[in-house]
Amino acid sequence: MRDDARPMETARPEPRVEAHLRALHAYWNEARRGQDVPKRADIDPRRIEPLLSNAFIAERIAPGVTRLRVAGMHLSEIMGMEVRGMPLSCLIAPPARDTFALHLVDLFEGPATLRMELRSPGSLGRPEMGATLVMLPLRSDLGDVSRALGCLVTRGASGRAPRRFEIKTCRSTSVAGIEDAGGLLQVLPGGLSGTVRGRGSKRGCAYL
After folding, report:
1. CB 135 within 8 A of CB 107
2. Rounded Cα–Cα distance for residues 140 and 44 (Å)
3. Is residue 7 one of the residues assigned to a domain?
4. What is the DSSP string of 145-161?
5. Nearest to 75 by CA among 23, 118, 123, 25
6. Which of 16, 20, 121, 131 is least enclosed, having the fewest CB within 10 Å?
7. pTM (2 d.p.)
8. Which pLDDT tens digit goes with each residue over 44-57?
């Protein structure tokens, strides 16, 4: 019996997830406060609560190489291990890593925002998975663009870990070309809002 008898669609995320991703981008854009790139210290995890398990902070350690400083539980689940401290490329299939490194150069040196559509092929015990990876550049406390706020959302059952992804498409958008979207990108009620709710009200930036 084949686990991947019927390949899944690797289209865009479902509408609510897509709305959360748009709200994530809107929050990053808001945090810019008239600057090209927001500071890492300005990112409040309470503002991206629906995507916290999918979110991460990556640090540039060399051209095309990043390390995961903080990572949500979903990333560890699909890898079957704790991913903090590991290179972000651990999520990418080896044949695609050189291309992935070039996109990371664009991210930090542009700087630019990235959105990648990914695919993890099916195999024994591993149904085919689709994923969307969003990465948004940040400045460190020293002022250099060497951090990134990212989010990885997957579609389909994870199956046996680890899962690694091929790059289907990548859209790189220069930060210089991103204007203040104002009301065009709205945060949905109950989604990625600025409202501090319940137990999350005591959380600080150390959680992301």
Report:
1. yes
2. 15
3. no
4. EEEEEEEEEEES---SS
5. 118
6. 16
7. 0.80
8. 999 999 999 999 99
